[in-house]
Amino acid sequence: MTASAVSDQERLADTRHVLHGPSGNPARKEVAYAAYVAVILVGLYGFPVLRALVLAADPEAMGSALRSPWAVLVVVAVTAVVAVLGREAGRVRGPVVAPVPWVDHVVASSLDRWAALRPWFGYSLFAVLFAGGLSGLLVGAAFLGARAASWWFVPITVAVGLLVGLVGGTTWLLGQSRLSPPLRRGPRPGVSSRLGAPSAEVRRMGLPELRTQAARSNRIVGGVQAGDLRAVRLEAARPVTRGRALRLRRRGPVATLVARDVLGLRRAPGAAVVGLVLTVLGGVTLGATLGSSAVPPLVGFVAAIIGYVGFGALAEGLRLEADTVGTPALFGMPPVRAAATHLVVPGLTHLVGTTLAGSVTALAVGSTVGEVLPWCVMTTVVLSGGSLLAAYRGRPPATFSTVPSPQTVAIWYSSPLVLCTLLVGGMVWGAVQWPTSGLLVIATWVAGASIVYAGLRRVDRESMSHRDV
Amino acid sequence: MDAVASLTAMDVRGDDVSKVVGPATLLAPVSVAASSGTCLVLRGPNGSGKTTLLRILIGALPPTTGTATVGDATADERDPAVRAAVAALVGAPATYRDLTLRDHLVLLDATWAGDADSCDDRVAAALTQLGLGDLGGRFPHELSSGQTQLFRLALTFFRPSDVLVLDEPEQRLDTTKRALVAEILAARRDAGTTVVLACHDPVVTDRVADRVVDLVGATD
């Protein structure tokens, strides 16, 4: 270590002592506690659920699938998705995010930037490796527990998980560091780092970018703690800059709102593509579940989750409309009519995508369109209602405290997803069990109409009840 | 402060309104009124309750005591008639991150059923009026703080209204733009709009105010 670096370490040690006293920074203990909680949650909920899914999906078939090239393909695909998501996440909130005062007063000083930020790099490195390893252990243990694989499968999945975590962590770091222009020369006499090494990437990070991400992270954490996920969403969303030349043309009120949603998707093509892909994937999953007895009916619940996320990606216009609740009226359309109009684009897109994909899949697995189509249509209806409930869910209730508990926040925000998953999954399961039941058809139509009505009622209530008391 | 004796269709009035939340008095009891075609300016030190009073007058906040009315109706923004009458800039309005400034005004015009044929011209004129003519293709996050304030004013001025309520419209604006906003407000007042604003700028106040109310802070 050079004399300068030693000096930096001493200065940092002094700074930490001033800030945290002799006990040092408690962040390490907090990270360890978070890992402890994650292990408990995975053990209590993750393992039993995944093991049950493997059991439901035929352990023998799953075991043979593990030894096929498909398993490698899945690992490669997951790694690629994690890498892409890591890079995108790094642009919003990277792995090296220190508190704002630390950035302003310590990182901004003449201290070596790597030395000043190394603890946060370390926490994140631990987090990605721990998450990867734990995920791998979960998958391996679930297959082992379902007797779909032997014991040797567990160390392999742990190793793969660690590797995927490392890849995700690397792209996460690069996503953050590449926001800043490259360093033109050595960062500091006597301090060297190889190009591409973590230290070089951290030293490359500029103060404005570090400060922006630190402040954004504060706001995101504050939004999560207060249950204000709308603020979190707006903080995390990348600014729109595409399609500047496109113009919204004046039509009738409804047509203009519809055109506004189409324009929004053209300016955010990533969301449109994700929405379309997930919609089609959800439709394929629905078609396979409904059309083939080889696919377990429980997969219908997975189709519901995929469809919900896909519909949500297409429904940004609805969420933005919901964001206007509580502000002085600018736009003239009544809230309920505006919310219903914002369902046109995601609803029609989802309807076309899921019915086409579901019907084609049904034909491919030897079924008929008639056995699949009605349930695909009902899925769109249920997801429309669920999207209304999600966009206008407002803040979680705070019965006993002004700040809702984490459990309340989790339940409040996941409730539309859970409701849609249960309704669509239950509908598919029922359709497989009793394909000719008229009662089931009536029940699903009642359920679909009810959730849409509940969504519109929620819009009306939120629009009326936000007035302070 | 003398209350206006007779109210016409779109008069704005607060009679003995106050706001108390828990132990804190946000607004001491006060009576204010502005009739159609006049401008009421609220002044006072920070914490004297100007914004609270404006929120009561637009119906976004129920008063603890007293009554607030817009025309013949109780000031309650849940009432569609009140929403249709009152254009307010009290706090930041929600804007769409995926729409340009021009798109915002087109959408606004469509939802208020403006004339489709003249829409583009009116949108261009509205942006030009506030010096934003060259920025119509920008997204809201691409504006400076002063331009953002001008855009918010453009949105508020553009929607049809009989009552304009603005909280410190001069904030973050340079001297020229403050004078420009004062001229626009004066023109709207002269055209019959009821204007109520909280304002710290003496130039704007001198240009537009028919009545000035100085709020004093609550004593507790």
UniProtKB/TrEMBL annotation, chain A:
Keyword Membrane: yes
Superkingdom as given in the UniProt entry: Bacteria
Entry keyword set: Membrane, Transmembrane, Transmembrane helix
Bilayer-crossing regions: 33-56, 68-86, 120-146, 152-175, 270-292, 298-318, 339-366, 372-391, 411-432, 438-456
Protein name: Uncharacterized protein
Source organism: Knoellia aerolata DSM 18566
TrEMBL record, chain B:
UniProt entry tagged with the keyword Endoplasmic reticulum: no
Pfam family, one: ABC_tran
Keywords noted in UniProt: Antibiotic resistance, ATP-binding, Nucleotide-binding, Transport
Gene Ontology CC terms: plasma membrane
Record's keyword annotation contains Flavoprotein: no
GO molecular function, one term: ATP hydrolysis activity
Residues of the ABC transporter domain: 12-219
Subcellular localization(s) per the UniProt record: Cell membrane
Major place of residence: membrane
Membrane topology type: Peripheral membrane protein
Source superkingdom: Bacteria
UniProt cross-references to Gene3D superfamilies, sorted A to Z: P-loop containing nucleotide triphosphate hydrolases
GO-annotated biological processes: response to antibiotic
Family as reported in the entry's similarity comment: Belongs to the ABC transporter superfamily.
Protein name: Multidrug ABC transporter ATPase
